[in-house]
Structure formats: C-alpha cells, structure tokens
Amino acid sequence: MKRVFVTGGAGFIGSEVVRQYMAQTDYSVVNIDKLTYAGNLESLITVENDPRYHFERVDICDAEVLAQLFEHYRPQAVMHLAAESHVDRSIDGPATFMQTNIIGTYTLLEAARHYWLKLGAEERAAFRFHHVSTDEVFGTLGVEGLFTEETPYAPNSPYSASKASSDHLARAWFHTYGLPVVTTNCSNNYGPYQFPEKLIPLMILNALQGKPLPIYGKGEQVRDWLHVEDHARALRLALDKGVPGEVYNIGGHNEKSNLEVVRTLCAHLDELRPQHPAGIAHYFDLITYVTDRPGHDQRYAIDADKIERELGWLPEETVESGMRKTVEWYLANQPWCDHVRDGSYQGERLGVMGGN
Hints:
Low-confidence stretches: 344-350, 352-356
Order of helices and strands: EHEEHEHHHEHEEHEEHEEHEHHH
Number of strands: 12
Largest sheet: 7 strands, parallel
Strand order of the largest sheet: 3-2-1-4-5-6-10
Strand content: 15-25%
CATH class of the domain at 3-191 and 225-253 and 303-316: Alpha Beta
Mean pLDDT: 92
Number of helices: 12
CATH topology of the domain at 3-191 and 225-253 and 303-316: Rossmann fold
C-alpha cells in the first residue's frame, strides 16, 4: 500500500485530493495540516473513519515534528499543498505568507531530503516530492498569449512572490540534491468546500443573503477557471507519473472575466433559488463595483498542452457545467457554509491597506 503525505489536506484543494485518494485508490494518506482559518476538518467527514486515513495537526515550519512524522509513517511520496493562498490577505499581512510559503516549504524539503537519503536504492528511486503551485508566479498577461512551463517568473503580489520563492526552492532541491521533485502550476480553482473569501463562494453566499456582490474595478480581469475535482485528478497523475525535475501547468481551458463569472453565478441562482432577497428582481442587481485591488493582475491563462501530451490529462468540467454544480453544492450544504462563516472571516473586504 502506497502511503502519501498531503500537506494542507484540510484545505480546499487538499481535502479534494484526500477524498479522491480514499474513494478511488488503495493509497494510505497522512493529512498534515496546521488548521489555520481556511483548514476545515468538516470537509473530510466522509473519510475520517477510514483506516487508511490519518490526520496530524502540525505546522510545516516545525522541523523536529516533521522528522518524527517521516520516521513514523515512512511515506513513499509527499504532495505539498500547505500554503497561505489569498492575495488580499497577503496585502494586509505579508509576513505569514513568507513564513509558511517560503520557510515552511524549505523546512518540508529538508525533512523529506533527510528521510529520502536514508532509504534503500529502490525506495529512493520511487520516492516523489510533488510541489503544488500557482500560475500567479508568472505575473500578468496581455489580451493574448498563454503561460507555459518556460514563462519567466514575474510575481506582482506578496502571495505570488512567496509562491515563486517556494517554486525556486523546490527546483534547487532537485538540481542540487537530486531530491525527485515534480512541480505543478495551476489556474484559478473553484468548486465544493472553498473558503468564502474567494470570489465564487463569496458571491454565492452574499447573493443568498441579499448582500452586495463586490467586483474589483470593472470586473474585466480574466482568469482561467479550473474545477477542483479536475485539478485533484491532475495532481494525483503528476505525482504518480510525472518526471522528476519537470514542471506541468494545469489549466481549465475556461477563460472568463470576473464579471462574466459573477453574472453566470447569478443566472444559476435565479433559476435554482428564485426566492430573491427583498428589494431585488435578479441576483445580478446586487453587483457593486469597488476600487480595484493594488497590483491586480489583468489576465491569467494556462497552456496545459504538456500535461495532456505527456501524462494524458484533460479537464472534464466546462466552466458552464462546473459553475452550475458549484452553485448546487453550496445551496445543498448551507450548514457547512454557516460553520465556516462562524469563524474569524465574515465576508469583509480584505487587502485594501486601510482603504475602501
């Protein structure tokens, strides 16, 4: 039985990876998560009693405890998803992003390397460290073009700068030490169990409560939208079949502006929840334009030809089918949403540096 460490396994993407491993493989999974505000074990209720699943509440910056976990569980692979991930929060408080995304990645790489060096030759050859990253490290695109695996790095936010740093560390540990590292960079994820500071769940939940739907600037920023289930499938494939030292871009082939996304969500809500809050005839009546985010990248778009060509992955969800499924999930899982929103985040705007 293959045992995999999944760091950040209680988060949005990580929990989907864990659920897929439990449902679709015979792998054993050790979920390593600090349980910050965005980590939620309620996202893993369906697997928590599976004997192949283990949870360890650990900070990836804790080198001593990480070493103990490697010795105790003796994994054959690490999928590293643990990260601070919200751009607006990185603007308000960059220090946490530097600590978790840079120091945490360094600490985990070192723990994995020291463990890997003690393995026998066959086990060492089979071991993998999968570093999961974002397309935001590449900066912004104009109206044309796509990010490829060779696109130069040009991060524009504290978040993307911290992830770019972690990518470079992962690359260096492969080239300097030979640690078998595979890296993936993905486009914007959406789907079930996403923390409601992100655009799509925030818009859905605000709309249901009759609250404003704040859109930065004119809503013209374009993103390539990737359903989290498609992303998790790609991550598992890259871990199993990816070539050490290689980078694979993962995109949804679904470019939409923020305004288009919000209007699509509103149209689905009009159909699926026609009982509108008082004072509005359509959910898009709640759209409100607010001052743009500082340093807001205009467009991201992924060229995912390499992972299709070399590993055989393609997304299954279109933006139309995926958005509808996402709205249906949030409508059917109000208790999860309510529990998440009972915490420190109540839908307020972040990342304005004291402005509005």
